[in-house]
Every structure is written in structure tokens, then in C-alpha cells.
Design a protein that fits this description.
This protein is mainly alpha-helical. Helix content is about 90%, strand content about 0%.
Length: about 120
């Protein structure tokens, strides 16, 4: 059961298991929870497990499959997830654009300072 796996992961964490192995175990448990939630009819639980799976690094194709199941269960909840993802992408792009603009401004400053 997933609870048994949770207990095993927690025991591994307590004995300072190698980080890479612990990460693999956490991803696997999140994946199994995601599968379990897809079999349920509770869209709130499925949405929660999708968010947890994304945070821990479950493979994107598995998350997409879960989102497809969510779309079938509750279109409004699916729409909210997709909107959140779009907002995250827009924020990341804005941050990237801001960094580029700041780098250009710094380069101009350095250019003009060198000319003085």
C-alpha cells in the first residue's frame, strides 16, 4: 500500500539515505498516488495529487494523463489547473525578459563608463 511506502520513505529519510535514492522513492510514491487518485472519483484529491506530483518531479507525460482524467472528472477544476500553469509560464517568461533587459542595461552602462 502507499501508506507502507510512505513509512519506508520516512524511515529512509531518518537514516540519511542517499539523496538521489530518496528523490527516486519520493517520485515513485507521488506517481503511485497520482495513479490512485485517477481511479477515484474525487476531483479535489486528483487535483491535489497533480500539484504534488508536479512539485516532486513526476514525469510530465504521467501528469498530462492525470490532467486528462481530471478534465473528464471536472472540467472547471481542469481549467483552473491549466490557467495556473499558464500564469506560471507567463511569470517565468516575464522574469526571463526582465533579466535580459537588466543585462542589456548593464552592458550599456559599462559601455558608456568605458568611453569616459
Amino acid at each position: 500500500s502507499i501508506k507502507l511506502l510512505d513509512n519506508s520513505v520516512e524511515a529512509a529519510r531518518k537514516v540519511n539515505m542517499e539523496e538521489a535514492m530518496l528523490k527516486k522513492a519520493l517520485v515513485r510514491v507521488a506517481f503511485l498516488r497520482l495513479l490512485e487518485a485517477q481511479m477515484d472519483v474525487d476531483h479535489v484529491k486528483l487535483r491535489s495529487e497533480i500539484e504534488a506530483a508536479k512539485a516532486i518531479g513526476v514525469d510530465a507525460k504521467d501528469i498530462e494523463a492525470a490532467k486528462n482524467a481530471l478534465r473528464k472528472l471536472n472540467a472547471d477544476s481542469y481549467r483552473e489547473v491549466v490557467q495556473e500553469e499558464l500564469l506560471e509560464l507567463m511569470a517565468a517568461q516575464q522574469a526571463k525578459d526582465k533579466t535580459k533587459a537588466e543585462a542589456r542595461a548593464l552592458k550599456k552602462q559599462q559601455h558608456w563608463a568605458a568611453r569616459r
